[in-house]
Amino acid sequence: MGPDKRLICDSAQVLDGGKGVRFEVEQHGEVQPAFLIRYDGAVYAYLNRCAHVSVELDWAEGEFFDLTGLYLMCSTHGATYLPVSGRCIRGPCNGRGLVRLSVEEVGGKVYLISEH
Fold first, then answer.
1. 19-73, pLDDT tens digit by residue?
2. Beta-sheet pairing, 42-47 with 30-39
3. Which CATH number is 61's domain given?
4. How far is residue 91's CA from residue 73's CA, in Å, rounded to a whole number?
5. Domain encompassing residue 106
6. DSSP 8-state symbol, 42
7. Domains of the chain: total
């Protein structure tokens, strides 16, 4: 059986370096918060959980980028992540990064891809 696709949003809703789109995903039998952002023209999605402490990153709904628009930042303790990989580059994450989710942008829509 191939991968399942679930619509997250229209491509136009996700601006480069701007507000992200929050959504939910089921992992290990639990519904978990997730988010979608656009950086350098491409879309990326991650579980909305800081690698340092299991809290959501955004400081206001959909606000994941720092003031420069170059990095993702946790609003609680300032852990800073690269938007293209989720790798922690600064802060109390002890080398752990964000959990990346598979997404695909096709025909002006962004889809979550999940293997079953």
1. 999 999 988 889 999 999 999 999 999 999 998 888 899 988 999 999 999 999 9
2. antiparallel
3. 2.102.10.10
4. 9
5. 4-114
6. E
7. 1
